[in-house]
Amino acid sequence: MKAPGRRILAGNIAFGLLFGFAIANIGFGDFGELNRMFTFGDLRMLGAFGGGVARAAAAFAVVGRPPPRARLHAGLVPGAMLFGTGWAISGGCPAIPIVQVASGAVPGVATIAGVVVGMAACRRANERWFHLDRGSCGL
């Protein structure tokens, strides 16, 4: 690997470690914290989400171009509902189980397995029945 590639890889690893550390310390890897967020028992986590959205909006304003427009299709709403339901049940979006496993929470392994099986089931169902264009998310 050439020097620029090594620097990019090293930067990505460093960013990933810092991001994982921050996510774990915020509480996003803790099922109890996420449960309190989804049941509106603790608004701190929602504040973290809101802060992230505000920072992203500020970054787009500084860069001077609007965020890319996503194509909407028939699977968007049901997919979003399934995603949110899975997140509420498992205690994390698809990235959080990695933080959970790294923190020693073994149930994150089951969530990762569920994500893999769900992606395969989605692919098969789409090929067989729905034929939806998944755009850039064609996993």
Description:
With 139 residues, this protein is mainly α. The protein has one domain (3-137). The chain has six helices and no strands. It has helices at 3-26, 31-38, 44-63, 76-90, 96-102, 107-130.
Structure described in brief:
The chain has 139 residues and is an all-alpha fold. The protein has six helices and no strands.
Number of helices: 6
Radius of gyration, whole Å: 18 Å
The termini sit apart by: 27 Å
Number of domains as seen in the coordinates: 1
Question: What structural class do helix, strand and pairing data support?
Answer: mainly alpha
Keywords:
mainly alpha
Draw up the topology in text.
Layout: H1 3-26, H2 31-38, H3 44-63, H4 76-90, H5 96-102, H6 107-130
